[in-house]
Amino acid sequence: MSTNPASNPIPDRSTRDLIQDVLRAESAAIERIAGRLDERVEQAVDLLLQCRGRTIVTGMGKMGYIARKAAATFCSTGTPAVFLHPGEAAHGDLGMVSRGDVLLALSKSGETAEVNAILPYMHRFDIPVISLTGCPASELASRSQIAIDVSVPSEADTIELAPTSSSTVALAMCDALAVALMQRRGFTREQFALFHPGGNLGRRLLATVEHFMHAGQDLPTVARQDPLRKVIVTMSQKRLGAALVIGEDKELLGLLTDGDLRRTFERCPAPLDESVADWMTVQPQTIGTESLAVDAIKLMEAKKITSLPVVDPQGQLIGLVHLHDLIRAGLA
User: Fold this and answer.
1) What pTM value is reported for the model?
2) pLDDT tens-digit readout, 244-286
3) Per the domain annotation, does 281 fall within a domain?
């Protein structure tokens, strides 16, 4: 029998309690910041909106990692931004900063030497500085146009030294600024999609119904006078779990699904020779080709259906999109 503690299946309650304490401490730190916000956050958003260049985000150590993430978040949400490593800045990287930019500087102490060393350059070229610091009386705060207090009463680690609550609060504040900028800019889902064309996120945001619908010879179309016997054969051949009832001009008249058929036979033991028009759903839910595939999923989930006819503005049948196809594409 193994004596390795890591293989012990019995949960360590003290460890679990410690983890809960850390999560609660960091959550409480964010709540504390949210409760003491003042006009400086509004001024910061206004300044970033007025920026004609880029938002330059800088920080050292753990705050440097937060700054990198903040720059990436700004970029993906409509605010051009770049991370500037303060240690490399004094060795040539200040060349990426130009008039019209805004500097967003992160420092828990406000006395980070590498960060403060680049402030004279910013002042020389009239580049506004917004700081997120845990020390409002620090050099960084005093040399910033806008200094946002992100101080925390203590860190979440047991010796209160490791950047935990302080870095979490800085991260949350950067996220909040990015979201506020999104709203002020009127940043849309379509704009967001343009910055995320790859992977599942891009597919979810950019793919339209037209990409996934069945059309042409693949469609299980029938006429309203066709008997259920013929309709069942058509549904079996096309294997889409539904039949689309159309008129002479291809206008969509109704829809009959596998579920409709089951309910039909429960009510009427032998309706095979009856017209599909007597059993179809009239004016079924439809969607257009240019609608987003994710919107089709939401519609089908809301209506508790799996098949959605695709029609043009005149109501003529174009295709059929099935929930299972969208799930297989990784959109749901």
Assistant:
1) 0.65
2) 999 988 999 999 998 888 887 887 766 788 888 888 989 999 9
3) yes
Does 149 lie in the same domain as 49? yes
Residue matched to tokens 């950019």: 206
Asked if 159 and 134 count as a contact pair (C-beta separation under 8 A), the reply is no
* pLDDT at residue 2 is higher than 50: no
84 in helix, strand or coil?
strand
User: What pLDDT is stored for residue 205 in this prediction?
Assistant: 67
Contact present, 22 and 157 (Cβ < 8 Å)? yes
State the residue range of the domain holding 240. 209-328
> Is 170:66 a contact under the CB 8 Å cutoff?
yes
Q: Do residues 34 and 166 share a domain? A: yes
Q: Do 27 and 172 fall into the same domain?
A: yes
- Total domain count, the chain: 2
* Residue 206 and residue 181 in contact, taking contact as beta carbons nearer than 8 Å: no
The per-residue pLDDT for 275 is 85
